[in-house]
Amino acid sequence: MGFLAAVGRAFIAFLAGTGRIALFTGNSVMHCVRPPIYPRLIVRQMIEVGYYSLPVVGLTAVFTGMVLALQSYTGFSRFNAESVIANVVVLSITRELAPVLAGLMVAGRIGAAMAAEIGTMRVTEQIDALSTLSTNPFKYLVAPRLIAGLVTLPLCVLAADVIGVFGGYLVSVHKLGFNPAIYLKSTWDFLEALDVISGLVKAGVFGFLISLMGCYHGYNSKGGAQGVGAATTNAVVSASVLILSSNYLITEAFFSTVP
Amino acid sequence: MTEIDNKIEVRDLRKAFSGKVVLDGVDLDVPRGESLVVIGGSGTGKSVLIKNIIGIIHPDRGSIKVDGEEAVGMKARDREAVTAKFGMLFQGGALFDSLPVWENVAFGLMAGHGTSRVDGKEIAIEMLRQVGLAPAVAELSPSELSGGMQKRVGLARAIATKPEILFFDEPTTGLDPIMADIINDLILQCVRELGATALSITHDMISARKIADRVAMIHAGKIIWTGAISEIDHSGNPYVDQFINGRAEGPIQMEIGKP
User: Fold this and answer.
1) Domain total of chain A
2) Which has the least CB within 10 A, A121, A129, A135, B253?
3) Is the predicted pLDDT of residue A153 greater than 50, yes or no?
4) Total CB pairs under 8 A between chain A and B
5) Is the dihedral of CA A74, A80, A84, A88 positive or negative?
6) What is the rounded CA–CA span in Å between residue B63 and residue B9?
7) Which of A117, A121, A134 sits opposite B108 (nearest CB)?
8) Separation between Cα atoms, residue B202 and residue B210, nearest integer Å
9) Cα(A238)–Cα(A228) distance, integer angstroms
10) Contact with chain B for residue A135, Cβ under 8 A
């Protein structure tokens, strides 16, 4: 009976948590579309999420593209299929690696920062102060971050696509001796719009989830420094898990019928 | 006395957190244009009471009327109209550390009253002058200010929108006696100039004697005594006597050393 009770409690806690997140999401989305909107804050968050994340996303992409080319060569050369390396690189980068790795990097950087900032505002009563100053905290704090995440991560991933393919090109041409023109032509010929679009859709979803988790855990943080620390950890972990699980669902939706 | 003579009326207000009863049927009247100070020890429910009235915390039961209008269960839009009457000085200042001082002071005006940034800055500098701060402070970040200066900026922010009701949460906590007296004087001056109703919570009796017209004592989640500040030394209430004289012996038993 004790075991069943423990399972039941855990299940009820899970349902309660899911309900709280669903209510938070609904409330946040409603405030994203209902005026007043704060364009200045949205632009500030877009710079924070996009511009300042570009170096880390770019570095991740370039090394991923380089490693991908190197590993593919090792594998495909056994079957004399080196010519498909360009295809493997561009497909892997645009469909999967750029959005997922960029999402995970931004979750670590931005999700944590959002949770820490909003969490600190919660424990120092700044969110309460917002309410007393005729300002809805959801509109002022959450909506700009959600919009910025949704819009900006796809732009970062677009840059990561180019940089990742360039990383593969660098290794293929300068280390593995591929012909540059053939490599680029092969990349271009094999690339389809759907590959890029699916990656961008993923990035939009991931950006939204990262911001949502950062805001949710920060907004609901309790206590002092320890509470803010826990919120930060929870934001990064939950965003990462959601990125990986939603990545499968989006891939399934896009490519279950497409080869 | 008619009901409308009270700016705020609280009846049978109850609030519990995870089964722990904090407010256990609070009845409180704040007469229009008067300064009421709620005194009580730490953990007696002072902050929870004020946060219920402001609308940051929702009560489990009871009634809160502002200008005769029931605020409990009010729709969000109507609640905003009630909140617009409030100004609050938070215990820790609760200044927005991402904004310079002048934007903190003018925040309520720019967010809730559509004041432009240029006008907002001008008004903020005037408000800072009223609380004894130089215009140069306007450009500083809150983190560059001392505790006393932060309280003054918080006060300037609270009065900037010319609220009808001012709330002061432990206004002198953490300040040296001279700065505490300066803050008390500023509170008196601001309340008189605005003609506002004031509700303060404190355990600092020097502050209470200075800023109160009337005093209410809260203990174990209930208001156990109310009266004019001139009557407090002859209240005949053993709880009030023990509290204002700061004696360890008496009916109020602190939870010290209990597991």
Assistant:
1) 1
2) B253
3) yes
4) 52
5) negative
6) 8
7) A134
8) 12
9) 15
10) yes
Residue type, B7: K
Q: Which residues of A touch B83 (CB under 8 A)?
A: 131-132, 134
Assign B142 a pLDDT band (cuts: 50, 70, 90): very high
pLDDT in tens, B167-191: 999 888 877 888 888 888 888 888 8
Q: How is residue A42 written in tokens?
A: 């949205």
Closest to B47 (Cα-Cα) out of B26, B78, B68: B26
Cβ burial B135-145 (10 Å sphere, 16+ → b, else e): eebbeeebeeb
Question: Structural domains in chain B?
Answer: 1-85+169-175+198-251 (3.40.50.300)
Residue A35 touches chain B, beta carbons under 8 Å: no
Closest CA to A57 of A110, A115, A95: A110
Is the pLDDT reported for residue B211 higher than 70?
yes
Smallest Cα–Cα separation from A212: which of A149, A131, A161? A149
- Concatenating the DSSP letter of every residue in A176-219 gives S---HHHHHHHHHHH--HHHHHHHHHHHHHHHHHHHHHHHHHHH
Average pLDDT in chain A: 91
In which domain, by residue range, is A65 found?
2-255
Tell me whether residue A41 is exposed, middle or buried, using C-beta atoms within 10 angstroms of its C-beta: 0 to 12, 13 to 18, 19 or more. middle
Q: Which residues of A touch B95 (CB under 8 A)?
A: 126, 129
Q: Tell whether A124 is within 8 A of chain B (Cβ).
A: yes
| Closest to A168 (Cα-Cα) out of A97, A248, A255, A80 | A97
What is the Cα Rg of chain B in Å?
Answer: 19
Tell me what pLDDT residue B258 has.
47
ipTM of the complex: 0.84
Rounded distance between C-alpha atoms, residue B40 and residue B240, angstroms? 9
Encoding tokens for residue A214?
Answer: 């950062």
Q: Would the CB atoms of B92 and A128 count as touching at under 8 Å?
A: no
- Which of B90, B109, B164 has the most A C-beta neighbours within 10 Å, making it the best mutation to test the interface with A? B90
- Collapse the DSSP code of A258 into the 3-class scheme (helix H, G, I; strand E, B; otherwise coil) and give the result: coil
Question: Which pLDDT score is estimated for B106?
Answer: 94
Determine the pLDDT at residue B148. Answer: 84
Q: How far, in Å, CA of A107 to CA of B171, rounded?
A: 39
How high is the pLDDT of residue A257?
A: 66
Give pLDDT, residue B2.
45
Write down the pLDDT at residue A259: 54
pLDDT band at A130; cut points 50, 70, 90: very high
